[in-house]
Amino acid sequence: MNNRHRGLERMALTACLLLAAAVPAAAHGQPGQAAGFLSGVRHPISGIDHVLAMIAVGVWGAQLRAPAIWLLPVTFPLVMACGGFLALIGMPLPGTEIGIALSALLLGLAIVAEARPPLAAASVVVGAFALFHGHAHGTELSDGQSALTYSIGFVVATGCLHAVGIALGLVDRWPVGRTALRFAGAGIMAAGAAFCWNAL
Amino acid sequence: MSAASTFVVAHLVTTGLGPVYDGVSHLLVSPEDAIAVIALALLAGLNGPAAARTGIFAATTGWLVGGIGGFWSGAAPAHATAAAASFLALGALVAVDRRLPPPVVGVLAASVAVWHGWLNGASIAASGVDALALAGIVAAAFVVMTLTAAFASAQRDGWTRIAVRVAGSWVAAIGLLMLGWSLRRPPL
């Protein structure tokens, strides 16, 4: 007990000495870091079209099993960043809204049909949709926010949405789960059809 | 580097505990440096213990040498572009998980570290902070890189190794977006 008390006393004494030695923090001029990160995280989860497409990529990857289960979620953020890059350097991408709407529609259809194309074809399909999502969503930074932390937040949130899709898609191992996933895919497809209608 | 120099925006944290701790905290709260260190460590770790050891010591030495050079020169290229380029290259190498021989990992680690260290040294000189802050940055980089590389080198197969590769793809994606921000133009 004495040792424990002595330890606590030393900790308290150390804390007091550190507090006494403290000086006002100054000149840590990194404005907009936290705001940029939160803005980046918020952006992908604030649009239902984006959320559904990200989750659908994860679910479809889980249906396709290895190596697609990790290859598709690796492909999506990278190509999405390419789309963001194109937007940032001022290169237009026609039909962005329709591309985003089609992504939900076709990825939902792939889940419903349990489509099993060759891995390269699946990667190309996912990559093509990622380009539209990146072009539309990756560049909406408010004034005064950090571009670096916005990018970190945006990519991390997108990756987490894929992880949610993969986690949901793991129920594919059980017959009931497979049926549930196909119903979910139908829901995503219906939402995609509505997005298409609005985009047109 | 001197030819490409721009105005340096110094952002060392003032901890009140002296320049060494200011340097330590700088690395931990600066994503442009912390992510580069983590990506370097993941790359070194994925290539096995020998490459990890080479990478750790090459990076630490490079960071110190670059930091001293930057401190004396005081000129720094644009930090955002440098960070973007290193994120893109390191992240892509981690994502593809291609085996690299230890000397290649060492040269790569040293090159990236010299670049980032140079920027840190120039920032320290510009902000008038004691040069000892560089020692704190290098020490923190060594510790973070050792722990992360040890974790990555322990992942031989399975989900955790895939998770490391996914992390690499995220770093590359962040680098690509950052490169876009640094080249940003209004839409056509």
Can you walk me through this structure?
The complex is a heterodimer of chains A (200) and B (188). By secondary structure, chain A is mainly α. Chain A has one domain (32-199). Chain A has helices at residues 2-21, 33-46, 48-64, 68-88, 96-112, 119-137, 147-169, 175-199. The longest helix of chain A is centred in the last third of the chain and has 25 residues, at 175-199. Chain A is globular. Chain B contains seven helices and two strands, in the order E-H-H-H-E-H-H-H-H. Chain A binds chain B through residues 21-23, 25-30, 33, 70, 73-74, 77-78, 80-82, 84-92, 138-139, 141, 147-149, 151-152, 154-156, 159, and chain B through 9-17, 29-32, 35, 80, 83, 95, 127, 162, 165-166, 169-170, 172-181, 183-188.
Summarize the structure.
The complex is a heterodimer of chains A (200) and B (188). Chain A has 8 helices and no strands.
